[in-house]
Amino acid sequence: MSKVLALKYRPSSFEQLIGQESITQTLTQALDKNRLSHAYLFSGLRGSGKTSTARIFAKCLVCDNGPTSEPCEVCENCQAANENRHIDIIEMDAASSRKIDDIRSLIEQTKYKPNSASFKIFIIDEVHMLTKEAFNALLKTLEEPPEYVKFILATTDPMKLPPTILSRTQHFRFKKIPQGSVVKHLSHILNLENIPFEAEALGILTRAGNGSLRDTLTLLDQAIIYSKNYIDAKSVATMLGVLDPEVLDTIFNSILNNEREKIIETIKELENYEGEVVIDELISHLKEKFFAGDPRFSTMLSDRFFKILSESKKLLFINADSGFVLTLLFFKMMEATKIKEIDEMIETLEAKIQTKPQPRKENIVTLTPEPEKRVSQPTTPHPPVTKPAKPAVNTTEVHYKELITKLYDRNYELGECFEKSISFVSYEENILTLMSCASENCKKLLRLSSGIIKHFVKESFTLDTKIAMKACDKTIPEPPQQEENSHEESKNIENPHPADSCIANQTVGNSENAEIDGENILENPFVKRAGELFEPSRIIVKSKI
Ligand SMILES: [Zn+2]
Questions:
Q1: Are residues 148 and 18 in the same domain?
Q2: Can you give the pLDDT at residue 490?
Q3: How far does residue 80's CA lie from ligand 1's centre (Å)?
């Protein structure tokens, strides 16, 4: 290997440029359509291809076929440009030639026409290094140069340029070359050089090159010599002083498997490395695993790991004990893996909730307080119906029995009337069809209690249950029942509120008592007050009927 890789594989055409597709596309268009500016500014990280692009662009201008995006590569101008000896392509490094005199001499050169080409191109590298006076001297020429003059200014720090320079140039921002593109380029070069390699080793070299192709190629040169013509991850890691990917894998495995002993051993081994390097490598490794879709590194876990790693990096900046920061870091990461357990707990809980039967209507009913005991209730035996508290089977029959119980509880007469006169027909699609064969009295009671009945039906069945009534198909009601009903009829007529059993019974009782003890009515406060007002000589109490 006679020549360093960075020079040997320096791109000589736009196609060979790596990772700056949008810039090469724009420049190609400008050259082919002859829409050229007189001054360009290329800014971006070192090794991102600024100088290479400037040289290719200059060649495109000086070629006998120029301006063209595809220089012939055979003409004298192309060859001279490729060999970096073209008389009309003037390169100046502003880092070393930064004074006003340097710029004055450059301006002087612009006054003479090109020697062999159609253009005279001035490439000023690290232009931000020029002094203020030098900038001022350059300004006028930059604004109105002779038509054959083209300026290409390159800088890693465009923010240091005066706005007057920025406004007079066409600015191209070179981005950091993506790692994937660099790795691809490295493997291409190694294949051409016939040097075997491990893909992982190229990844380590690229990360160390930090987006600069030139730096990465310099590292590759070193790696070829260091690893004796076989580029493997282990030797590259040792050469660069970074962690071997296998060690990183072991660290993450120990963390994920909660192997405390192993972690403590690893920490001892890591004493030879700088804390910051270890953290950076862990971040890169985590990133790789995450993008590779490793199922062990979920989004949540990766996020937590990344936060812990970033926090630890901050601690190192505060001059904390590197070894202790790493120890804490690994134990915190182990704690973070317990998120999984919480996830599993939630899942288990959810599964339990799903398998647990939904609370039934019956159960809800049992929770409601029992209706108050009425006066008439204890004297009359309760019909043998299913108690709501009893664990019920989900059948319509149970619901119907529950309804009857509720009606009995509310008003014994209503319950009795309902049970005897109403028969169940069907319960389909939330419609409870009933058949009524009630006597007139019972009908009246049912009508007055319709609100309560509806309420209990909704409670016993479902909230959207509706009642449909069917006409009676029984012709002759039982005679004794008829008698009983007729007896009740007299009671109900007197009862001003048959719907509310508690009040109704009391009212019935009171009115009966009032009729029996007719004389007591004189003690009634209203009657007394009337007596005082009208001062009657005699008060006669008369029955209403
Ligand atoms: Zn040419």
A1: yes
A2: 42
A3: 9
